[in-house]
């Protein structure tokens, strides 16, 4: 390909050809990988003439819009508008009607040439000029519209605050909470998987020992047809909920429905239920085989009583469907169609391999299916309604119990290729590439997450509505939201499907200032604190920018090391941060100390050779000694963190309760506003939640807690730990 054309295409697509890796070393994207990324974005790299035409078409799509499709501006700065006109139009007076979110109108007359000339381009022998004009109006934060009377051009004008939400109580004391995997909660009453009632009970207990929040794994909608596709970070829809978390026994009509009661009291059902509760890993298929038939029975009870005892519920359900709109109907349609096709042929794992007539949600075949299975679609809508109600009830339990934040939700960075989101909006996603990460400490070989990225320009053309919908939905019934891989606001590592491995990708840039503004607006409106998971390869200046917008950094103890290799004292962590010892992608405290993650990695073939493994063991040994030294060097309220006679060498020193709890209290005394501990560390568990870079090799996203809530919530040692943590946060 012509070098000048290739450079123009690379710049147009926002592809970064040079970057610094996680260790600060310069990296370069090879020409072959650059070409693969251009091909993934639809450009013909074999024929320069075709590629030039493709580029021209996309450039014209932008420049032929008199008003750019969307503009995101800050409320504390004068509002302006860009006008994009041909040379012949530059002296033509234009009338703009500004419609505020509350419906009020203002009219402005502007002549393009009287504004500030920003840019000039010549495309297909036509000169286009871009002028900036001050609007001379004041608008509140929100979503407004500008319409050009001379034509059909419209612009979404998003006016944003300069800062995400922060509760007033943050200035009075520091907060803490517990992170847990909802599916992993054991109880003597659930059906083999943690549910929303377990969550409510956990919130109630943790509030009693002083916690301010409970952090959840992503609870996005997965696949009822494929329960074993269980990764919360590879969902079907991030706007809707995972129905497996519904507490069936709390559904309307459960106690009154004779049909449902006969199902759950049958000896075979009781036996299967007992087996599911006893399992150490969630059997998603087994759980859904128990839940789905009873949930269907209770849906029928609801329809049978919708004009009687369930009349008020029916009214609320109708409102829910109205507010859910097309997105809810698309999810219900996808789930129903997926189940229908998969039952006929188990090769039909998702819409990319469905018969052609079903791959387009607007096709006649799909519409015919929806018409014929209207009740089935309504059933899946009803399950979403129940899930939302139970989640809202859990948040209310937290608030009633005195928690400041309550639920702290998690927004995954993407959706799987077979997702409802891509089926319903295919033009937004690049299916010939996947989101991932270059080599870093979490993934020495790089990572490919199998999540098709959004096209930045398509996201812009859609007025950023997909992002707005995601943020708004995931801030519902929550006091805080964690943005997984928050670097995605700036850039994502795209790995073309043709690349040999995850290192064969490159960063593609996104409009960070627009996205940050929208994040701040939704955060303020939903009164949700924002935590950005800023691990991995972080470019210079990005943490400072996120901090300026009030996004809380994510500081993992194991990664907070000084230049000499020692561990930074939590007292020196930034205030605007959430501190944590470990995460779902890292080993537990015991797993780290006993090198279980390295042993598992060796078994699973994650290391390139024995030398690399031995280097990791040696590094871990040194890190453990530095941690032990640090704990011995710190005190809490004048008392040493570790007993004075506690071992000072890690040789032959296993992780015991004293060391485990000392680490948690050490972090609790730190300076960060937020602290998040792992429930499995309080229970002194060893196996990890997830091993990055694996799929079927390890039971990721399935491990349950070792004890049910009825047991661990009565343990005096755990309550003493949590009370001590609470006391540390008040200092």
TrEMBL record:
Keywords (A to Z) from UniProt: Carbohydrate metabolism, Glycosyltransferase, Transferase
Organism the protein comes from: Rheinheimera maricola
InterPro entries reported for this sequence: GH, Glyco_hydro_77, MalQ_N
One Pfam family here: Glyco_hydro_77
A molecular-function term among this protein's GO annotations: 4-alpha-glucanotransferase activity
Transmembrane parts of this sequence: none
Family: Belongs to the disproportionating enzyme family.
Enzymatic class: transferase
Protein EC: 2.4.1.25
Official protein name in the record: 4-alpha-glucanotransferase
Catalytic activity: Transfers a segment of a (1->4)-alpha-D-glucan to a new position in an acceptor, which may be glucose or a (1->4)-alpha-D-glucan
MalQ N-terminal beta-sandwich domain: residues covered: 67-161
